[in-house]
Amino acid sequence: MLSLVLSCVTPPQQSEVAAPIEPVPPPAPRQEPIVEAPKEEEVFDPDSISQEMYENTKVDVQALVGNLNRIIRTRDYSGWTENLAESYLREISSQAFLEEKTEELYRRDQAIASSIGRDPRQVSKKILRTARDYFENVVVPSRSNDHVDDIEFISDNQVKAYTIDARGQRLVLYNLVIIDNQWKIIS
């Protein structure tokens, strides 16, 4: 018996037409992130400063501080700010800095009053609102007669200037850095 199976094939409907198959690209080779070896920070060696450079820098810093003393004694605010690094001027103009210095000034004034027999509770608080207030109330009374006894190189272009008090203690006067070939106060 012979059976014959006949089938009708109908053409596919438009919606049944398959989209052309696009070839799948091979996966890209996996790239590992490039990790550079950490750079060793150059460590400043104070012994790299020659005696001549030390002496010349000390003379320059002493001259700067002498000029600052004159500026401060004459209450020349703009002359003083010309000797500040911009970052330091921004710092001393900030509200946080001024609030902190207001409290320090108040405690200092109370201690002075107490030491001369006055009631420290009677001391009025001077509010520092601007860098100029800081200059007038903190810098002028304390920095008009400074002198540099020693310097310490922090880097090739940064030094700390010290004075030595009556007890022989080294006190930091200024932290200085060279900016545009001029020494500027950074703190």
Q: Secondary-structure map with pairings?
A:
Blueprint: H1 51-73, H2 77-81, H3 86-93, H4 95-115, H5 131-143, E1 150-155, E2 158-164, E3 170-179, E4 182-185
Structure description:
A four-stranded antiparallel β-sheet has the order 1-2-3-4, covered by helices on one side. It has helices spanning 51-73, 77-81, 86-93, 95-115, 131-143, and strands at 150-155, 158-164, 170-179, 182-185. Mean pLDDT is 85; it is low at 1-10 and 24-33. It contains five helices and four strands. Helix 1 (51-73) packs across helix 5. It is an alpha+beta fold and 187 residues long.
Key features?
single chain; 187 residues; alpha+beta; 4 strands; disordered N terminus
Structural class: alpha+beta
Gross morphology: globular
Biggest sheet statistics:
4 strands, antiparallel
For the secondary structure, the number of strands is: 4
- Cα-based radius of gyration, to the nearest Å: 36 Å
Give, in order, the helices and strands: HHHHHEEEE
Q: Per DSSP, what share of the residues sits in E-state strands of 2 or more residues?
A: 5-15%
How many domains, in number, for the residues? 1
Helical content class: 25-40%
Mean residue pLDDT = 85
